[in-house]
C-alpha cells in the first residue's frame, strides 16, 4: 500500500507541483493586478487633486483679475467724476466771477462821492478800484470775487489801522458808514 501511495504520489507530483505553481501564479497575478489597480487609483486621485487644485488656482487668479479690473474701473470712474466735479466747480466759479463783475457795473469816475479802495492779496498782488460811496461792503466782496486772484472761498476784508474786520455782519453797511470813504486800504485775510 505504501508502494502504491508512493507511486501515486510520484505520478501526481508533477501535476501537483504544476497546480501549485499555477495557483501561485494566479495569486501573484491577482496580487499584481490589485497593486496595479491601487497604484492606478492613487495616481488617478493625485491627478484629480492636482487638476482640482489647478482649477481652484485658476479660478482664484480669475477672481483676483476680475476684482482688480473692477477696482481699476471704479478708480477710473471716481477720477472721471472728480475731474468732472472740478470742471463744474471751476465753471461755476467762472460764472460767479462773471456775474459779480456784471453786477458791479462800470467803475465810477473820480469825484466827491467816489471812494477809492486798494486791496492787497495774500500773494502780494494789489488791485485798486473806485466805488460809489453809497455802495455797500458787499460790492467790495463782489469785486474781489470777480477777480481771478484769490483761490480761497472764505476770506475777510480787514483794514490795518485801526484793525477792523469787515465780515458778513457789516456787508450791508455803506462805504461811508464803514468809515472807508474817501479812500481805504484793505487786505484779505483767508479764513481756515
UniProtKB/TrEMBL annotation:
<dbReference type="GO" id="GO:0005783">
    <property type="term" value="C:endoplasmic reticulum"/>
</dbReference>
<dbReference type="InterPro" id="IPR001012">
    <property type="entry name" value="UBX_dom"/>
</dbReference>
<dbReference type="InterPro" id="IPR029071">
    <property type="entry name" value="Ubiquitin-like_domsf"/>
</dbReference>
<protein>
    <recommendedName>
        <fullName>UBX domain-containing protein</fullName>
    </recommendedName>
</protein>
<dbReference type="InterPro" id="IPR050730">
    <property type="entry name" value="UBX_domain-protein"/>
</dbReference>
<dbReference type="Pfam" id="PF00789">
    <property type="entry name" value="UBX"/>
</dbReference>
<feature type="region of interest" description="Disordered">
    <location>
        <begin position="48"/>
        <end position="73"/>
    </location>
</feature>
<dbReference type="GO" id="GO:0043130">
    <property type="term" value="F:ubiquitin binding"/>
</dbReference>
<feature type="domain" description="UBX">
    <location>
        <begin position="110"/>
        <end position="188"/>
    </location>
</feature>
<dbReference type="GO" id="GO:0036503">
    <property type="term" value="P:ERAD pathway"/>
</dbReference>
